[in-house]
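Example record used in the benchmark description.
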Amino acid sequence: MYNLKSLKPKLILIGASTGGPGHIQKILESLERDFDSTIIIAQHMGEAYLPSFVKNLDEKCLLDVYMVEHGVQMKPSSIYVCSGLCTLEKDFRFSKRKTQSHHFNPDINSLFESIVPVLDRFEVMSVVLTGIGDDGASGSLTLSNAGVRCLAESEQSAIVFGMPKRVIELCKDIEVKNINEIVEDVQNF
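Model output (structure tokens):
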């Protein structure tokens, strides 16, 4: 449970698509057991493959990695991987549902935008990594406009530069960094 009377807990949002699993693993493997931020990951992937992705990350990381389940309350110093339409509710419980109205599984924009109502209770950083398309762009813009620190992976290290490129085009305050710099920023957040 979060002690919201002390310093603001830290929350890191990561969105990725093509090329993302390796970059996500690199970030998570770099974290020590005493890492005190919660991480929520929206990695585009078929629902059948997400459980093995979560299992692999959990085996390689020092922190606990969970698949988001509907109604589960988010815990500090944990890592959550989304599927379907995954959002965070005001009571820090996850809402997860399947929907045909969203093209991506999971939908990065929906996750990012769901954080806005709880921004006053967390220190938040968002990261959009490698991927095709534009998912994460409008969500990053919403977060950036609300004062959140937003990062996008550079063309230098992105396997596919579509998603980060669109975020960079849309968000004037975006920080563009290569994957090694992103690893450092996550470690030091």
